Amino acid sequence: MSKIPSQQLRIIGGQWRSRRLRFPAIDGLRPTLDRIRETVFNWLQFDVEGARVLDAFAGSGALGFEALSRGAKEVIFLEKHPAAALQLKDNLQLLEARNAQVWAGDALLWLEQNPEPFDLVFLDPPFHKNLLQPAIDALRLLPGALIYVEHEASLQPQWPANWQERKSKATKEFCFRLFEVVAA
């Protein structure tokens, strides 16, 4: 088996600011860009510290590592690709992060089997794989929970009635949005 080449991402804030982490160069794996992560974490600046975070479809783990760096109480990374999941574990070890876990498997299956409450969820599935709507439908969140969603611009997901959009931005290629779960 040949070794998968790797790329790097940089943590942009918090205790690990400027630390570089490796991630495998896998087709379809696209870490959230630095400038977008900066915007998202500006949106979330008062909501990350002490939060239970789920990074579904983690890929490089850019969003989850950023949350850990900024004081999240716990992060669960869900990643199906074995090389990416292994690299997430290696990066957690490198950072000596003990308040995070990697689940190497199908994120949709995990969501169906673990209706745990999270304070913050990152949903950034691979584009053009029809994973976003099933993930949205599988989430069970309490009022006050926040959900960051990144999706291709052409997609028109059906948002749950109790998800109130807080912020959003779009480019020609993709949209990114922050929702809050409100009482039904």
CATH-defined architecture: 3-Layer(aba) Sandwich
- The CATH topology comes to Rossmann fold
Summed over residues and divided by their number, the pLDDT gives a mean of 93
User: Helix/strand/pairing class, anyone?
Assistant: alpha/beta
Number of helices: 5
**CA-based gyration radius:** 15 Å
Q: What is the beta-strand fraction?
A: 25-35%
**What oligomeric arrangement do these chains adopt?**
single chain
Structure description:
- The structure is a single chain.
- 25% of the residues lie in helices and 29% in strands.
- The chain is an alpha/beta fold and 184 residues long.
- It has a single domain (6-181), classed as Rossmann fold (3-Layer(aba) Sandwich).
- A seven-stranded mixed sheet has the order 5-4-3-6-7-9-8, with helices on both faces. It has a two-stranded antiparallel ribbon with strand order 1-2.
- The longest helix is centred in the middle third of the chain and has 14 residues, at 82-95.
- 40% of the residues are buried.
- The mean pLDDT is 93.
How are the SSEs placed, and which strands pair?
Layout: E1 6-10, E2 20-24, H1 34-43, E3 52-56, H2 62-69, E4 74-79, H3 82-95, E5 100-104, H4 107-113, E6 120-123, H5 132-138, E7 146-152, E8 163-170, E9 174-181
Parallel strand pairs: 3-4, 3-6, 4-5, 6-7
Antiparallel strand pairs: 1-2, 7-9, 8-9
Catalytic activity: guanosine(966) in 16S rRNA + S-adenosyl-L-methionine = N(2)-methylguanosine(966) in 16S rRNA + S-adenosyl-L-homocysteine + H(+)
Pfam families: Cons_hypoth95
Keywords: Methyltransferase, rRNA processing, S-adenosyl-L-methionine, Transferase
